[in-house]
Amino acid sequence: MSDRHTGDAAALLRRHRAVLPEWLALYYDEPLEITHGEGRHVWDAEGNRYLDFFGGILTTMTAHALPEVTKAVSEQAGRILHTSSLYLSRPMVELAERVAALSGIPDARVFFTTSGTEANDTALLLATTYRRSNQILALRNSYHGRSFSAIGITGNRSWSPTTLSPLQTLYVHGGVRTRGPYAALDDAEFTEACTADLVDMLGQTGGDVAALIAEPVQGVGGFTSPPDGLLAAFREVLLEHGILWISDEVQTGWGRTGEHFWGWQAHDQAGPPDMLTFAKGIGNGMSIGGVVARAEVMDCLPANSISTFGGSPITMAAGNANLNYLLEHDLQGNARRVGGLLLERLRAASAGLGVVREVRGRGLMAGVELADPHTGDPSPKAASLVLEAARERGLLIGKGGGHATSSVLRIAPPLSLTVAEAEEGAEILEQALRSADNELGGESAQ
To answer: Helix 419-439 crosses helix 380-392 at what angle (to 10 degrees)?
Structure first.
């Protein structure tokens, strides 16, 4: 690839640092300015092309510059950009009807927001109001957004800058299958132990708990997930106490896992959740989030509420067009087929590498957990090395993980990824992993 590190990029970085917060994270030693994209590729300001395996944090769900979406946005922009929720909106009603029908929640109501953070914040407002309690159950290693209330239920200290919170949060086991005190158990025993932990936790609460909020696959936590059915076992316990279940589908929704349209459907033996939250992919880059809830729960607020920007005409037009494309082209099925191939290739590429602890995932949501090849400890250094090496070879990926380590590579391409692109990306990742393994003195260096 050509030299991408020019004086213009350095100048833009200086301007960025002069006016934006220090805690606003940037990838790469020399940060990247992305100027445009098409399909599964993006270009930087110097004209270098990259295969995009992160999609703006799982947000470009179908494809960059998808003609159906850009046309819908352009046509709506030519009519009117904004009205607010104080007025009837045909695009909002249409998308709400479709999301409600797809959600699996009976007698569903939909409230649109501008982000996943705001969606989870709204779900917490509904749950605590409905149950008259500020106690929330969350999974360890979880992440639910950056608002004050969402930070208060986040079980990942890398993304929780304060212990102050309007909520009393109690953390239960279950989000991470291969670490922790229950890792050595088989799936059935793991589920039983985590459920017993939940029961024990409820015995220590100071009153009625409002809700359990859980990501079916933990996103920022490193694409970890419990055995199928664990949340169903939790649900049975929750039902005994009247506690609500909120499924955070901000990263798992819309068929990304391949196996299901929603992540909660891998845990459906005790019925659907009371609420699910969504965002990211449905807008394909436009700011859409939302909550789906049973009418009884959604309508429990005793005060007026509106959303100035949630459900705006232009974002709803994008959401409807994007959902059309997703369903008409069976992108869930593509995620299952191409994602399965990609996971096989990643596992084969990682064989014999001391730097790779585990390859895991579902559909086009794959995680590669990295470790120091000598100690076995989580290795954020290895993740940074692979991130940089992949970029140099023309591939963009993400990272995350628990215990404040960011030692997991997060791989989540647009759901229209082709077999050829999956093979190309896997080859680049193999080269990047071997490069990091050699630098850290792993097995491939022996």
So the answer is: 130
